Amino acid sequence: MFENFCSYLNDKAKFTNAEIEQIKAVSQVKKISKGELLMQEGTLWIYNAFVCSGLLRSFYTDVNGTEFTLSFAPENYWAGDRQSILSGKPTPYSVDAIEDTVVILIEQKDFYELSKKIDAFNTMMSTLIQKHLVVTEDNVNNSIRLSAAQKYYTFLAKYGRAAQRIPAHMIASYIGTTLQGLEQIKKNRL
After folding, report:
1. Which neighbouring-strand residues pair with 29?
2. Considering only CA atoms, which of 156, 151, 155, 148 is closest in space to residue 184?
3. Could you tell me the sign of the dihedral formed by the alpha carbons of 85, 81, 112, 99, in that order?
4. Any bridge partners for residue 58, and if so which?
5. pTM of the predicted model as reported, rounded to 2 decimal places
6. What is the pLDDT of residues 48-92, one digit of tens each?
7. Whole-angstrom Cα distance, residue 9 to residue 15?
8. For 140-162, what is the mean pLDDT?
9. What confidence tier does 108 reach under pLDDT thresholds 50, 70, 90?
10. 178 to each of 65, 115, 141, how far by Cα in Å?
11. Which of 1, 7, 128, 174 could form a disulfide with 69 if both were Cys (CB 3.0 to 4.6 A apart)?
């Protein structure tokens, strides 16, 4: 599975073979079965996780046990909790596998060293973090301004074909509606 990650890296920047080997040396391949947690609320998260195959979901569970879906991570997405990595505080949410998934994990200390040693890696990650900040800001703005139907159309545009692999109750949770509300949105779209 490192080959998938290598293809991603080479698509984003120019790396030498020696640099790819440095990245590979600190990369761990982890298989997560459908329904299994990659990251659990209340634990310290120390990894940068890249999805090679499969599909992950980030979610928060309230005191009543209701799950609120925050985001999805299909192939070629990064997953985890940057706030926990950077602050050293436990993560307030969990990440589970919607389907069997394979990720590449790189511990933050190794990630930091790669960024110091490999200019292309540092530039690539700086660009990705900036894009992530824009996406996060858009998500916050959209959650406030958009109707559930508009959130659904935004969801479809963002996740493309991966949207077909996500269970309806998770989509409903993500856009802030019920299953019935989601069905009505889909019905009105036709």
Report:
1. 104
2. 148
3. positive
4. 71, 95
5. 0.92
6. 999 999 999 999 999 999 999 999 999 999 999 988 998 999 999
7. 8
8. 92
9. very high
10. 16, 43, 21
11. 174
| Amino acid at the residue 119 | D
Contact between residue 51 and residue 96 where contact means Cβ atoms under 8 Å apart: no
Nearest to 73 by CA among 165, 169, 147: 165
d(CA 124, CA 74): 19
Residues β-bridged to residue 69:
59
Q: What is the DSSP letter of 177?
A: -
CA gap 86, 147 in Å, rounded: 33
| Locus of tokens 């019935």 | 180
Which residues does 115 contact at the CB level (< 8 Å), separation at least 6? 121, 122, 125
* Amino acid of residue 13: A
